[in-house]
DNA sequence: TCGCTTGTTGATGG
DNA sequence: GCCATCAACAAGCG
């Protein structure tokens, strides 16, 4: 369930269970999930190391040890599982961290989009994550506006681009555009100052609410994302929602609240 | 069988 | 170089 709030929840989950604990062994049933090392190299690098408090940047989880780091990206179907909660291993558990005391933290990923990377130092970690923009939850107003001013094109595509802001995904961008009443195909260069600032404020508000209140993308309440799958009406105006494709992704919007820039 | 899916990357074309 | 589109990755569901 990987949007920024989901990965932040994974980060806390990882910290709660694995921080301060040492690695007894790393088991990788499917070698292809580790993208830049062999299972043997990953095991050798992490075995005997102790996990520290993990970091998150956008949708990336960076789990540092007192030596190298394990980087996890959750794709569309990634998850973390703790053995005390779920004792049996699952066929989609791709990386299994056996920790001191016998507990296991497992990286599960059905579709194998995303994966695991090994980084020996911060430079390698940055290289593995690619060119990411600032974390969407940490970015300052001034930098947001500065970066937005350098972009052209459809709002949906710009906001989804991890090089612009790291952490905004398909669901969250639909929510953000609906909250700010901006059509997904609206070109960002046509946004006025009020709209730009509303984008920043609303992005922060949604992220904080979803991180603090849900720890994930919400499924209930007066959110666009909570009603769209049920085919429900717009929570704001009561009109029917519309489904289009924008930036190559399924996109939900309210045609009344978010007028089409080019009817 | 086909279409669809909360993500990302690389090729292609304008 | 920037932007738009699409295929590919992979696996499950209806």
Provide an overview of this structure:
The two termini are 34 Å apart. By secondary structure, this protein is of the alpha+beta class. Helix 1 (4-18) packs parallel to helix 7 (193-214) and helix 4 (141-149) packs across helix 7 (193-214). It is 32% helix and 19% strand. The protein has a 4-stranded antiparallel sheet with strand order 1-6-7-5, with helices on one face. It contains 8 helices and 10 strands. The protein is elongated, with a radius of gyration of 20 Å. It has 2 domains: 4-129, N-terminal domain of MutM-like DNA repair proteins (Alpha-Beta Barrel); 141-253, Helicase, Ruva Protein, domain 3 (Orthogonal Bundle). The longest helix has 22 residues, at 193-214. The structure holds a DNA duplex (14 and 14 nucleotides).
Helix content class: 25-40%
Instruction: Describe the sheet with the most strands.
Output: 4 strands, antiparallel
Q: Evaluate the radius of gyration.
A: 20 Å
Count of distinct strands: 10
What is the global morphology? elongated
CATH architecture group name of the largest domain: Alpha-Beta Barrel
Work out the count of structural domains: 2
Oligomer: single chain
Low-pLDDT segments, ≥5 res: none
